[in-house]
Fold this sequence. Notes:
This protein has 260 residues and is mainly beta.
Amino acid sequence: MRKNHYLLLLFSLFVISCSNDDDSNTPSEINNAIPLTIGNYWVYDVSVAGTTGRDSLYIADDTIINNLTYKRFKTESFPIGFYSMALNNNAIRNADGKLLLSGGIDTGIPEIPIDLTVSDFVVFDPNAATGTVLSTFNGQNQQEIEGFEISVSYSLTTEAGESYASYTTPDGQSYNNVKAVAVKLSLKVVVSIPDIPIPYTILPTQDVLISTQYYANGIGMVHTVTDMQYELADTFGIELPLPQSLEEHQEEILSVYNVE
């Protein structure tokens, strides 16, 4: 009889333990990923290609687009991190917890001609399951550069990431109720070379930029990890007016902030 009571006690402790583990991994609803009040600001420690710096991002004012009110973001100086660069001079509004961005997104990828001017591009959705595509923006641009006709096809997407009851940034700061978003830029580059009749694909379709951003409810973006990488195909000695390759790792970590 005592043995049965002992087994029942062990089973009860096991159930309670499992229940606590589940609770710790289940964040509550995130409905305020970026508090959109004029004057709110975020300062990020940025590491890019082995060098460090700081970006100061803030909400400057209201702006009206298609009769809707957005908050316009600016930086104190020219930004170096992808996240601040993408938001600088652009506008965001909150629609039932979703964050919608309008403006021209600067990726920081040099000399490859793309136009990422978006309208109500979804950059965050609190209710999206992990892996759900939030928004897609496709485009194509043709441009003559130094006698070469360059054609670039591009696709920008955002995708819902994991949710975390607690998330710790690399500097040891912990935040509760965090949800990730992945931003991906895919490129295909084709060049027409003089005296060669067939266009040549120097960059097959591939993700050249992947940025994972972590948002803490009621605070904003607390950590971003961005990788940019590509290498053009062999051009058989022909020098093109494009960087042959790019490989860059970035991290942006929230250092100081003020939100209302």
